[in-house]
């Protein structure tokens, strides 16, 4: 029940936050700053998981991760949209979502193995390291013409 409540909270909050974030003027923050900040929130959330001791902690972390995802996704979609080649839109988006899904599935399987063999804190530490790396790398996104 706790797992379903925290996942449900994450999904509903994320949905609500998408409507809130659309009110932020796009010119106010650069896409790369938004992507970087979103990944930094993921980093903070994954570190926080190491110190979570009850369901309330998990709900707060899920809220943080939902906010991070809501900041990242529209910005990445805008970056992809700007890079689209006329007549290749479906191919580019299919490639993006296909590779993303394969990576998510592989990460989930590997994460399960790591958590089983080495414990959740090792898994959360690795996830945090990847999120922090993504946060820094996002700062190097270049604006394409």
Characterization of the model:
- By secondary structure, this protein is an all-alpha fold.
- It has one domain: Growth Hormone, Chain: A.
- It has five helices and no strands.
- The chain is globular, with a radius of gyration of 16 Å.
- It starts with a helix and ends in a 7-residue tail after the last helix.
- The mean pLDDT is 90.
CATH architecture: Up-down Bundle
CATH superfamily annotation:
MFS general substrate transporter like domains
Largest sheet: none
**Any low-confidence stretches, pLDDT <50, length ≥5?**
none
Shape: globular
Distance between the termini: 49 Å
Q: How much strand content do the residues show?
A: under 5%
* Count of individual domains: 1
Which descriptors apply to this entry?
mainly alpha; 80% helix; 145 residues; Growth Hormone, Chain: A
Topology readout:
Elements: H1 2-21, H2 31-49, H3 55-82, H4 89-118, H5 120-138
Helix pairs in contact: 1-3, 2-3, 2-5, 4-5
Please provide a brief summary of the model.
The protein has one domain: MFS general substrate transporter like domains (Growth Hormone, Chain: A), CATH 1.20.1250. Helix content is 80%, strand content 0%. It is built from five helices and no strands.
């Amino acid at each position: 029940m706790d797992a379903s409540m925290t996942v449900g909270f994450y999904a509903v909050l994320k949905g609500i936050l998408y409507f809130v974030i659309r009110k932020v003027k796009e010119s106010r923050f650069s896409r790369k700053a938004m992507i970087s900040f979103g990944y930094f929130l993921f980093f903070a959330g994954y570190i926080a998981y190491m110190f979570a001791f009850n369901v309330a902690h998990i709900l707060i972390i899920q809220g943080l991760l939902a906010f991070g995802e809501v900041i990242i996704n529209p910005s990445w979609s805008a970056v992809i949209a700007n890079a689209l080649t006329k007549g290749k839109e479906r191919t580019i988006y299919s490639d993006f979502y296909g590779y993303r899904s394969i990576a998510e599935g592989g990460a989930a399987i590997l994460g399960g193995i790591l958590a089983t063999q080495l414990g959740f804190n090792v898994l959360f530490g690795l996830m945090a390291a990847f999120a922090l790396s993504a946060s820094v790398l996002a700062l190097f996104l270049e604006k394409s013409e």
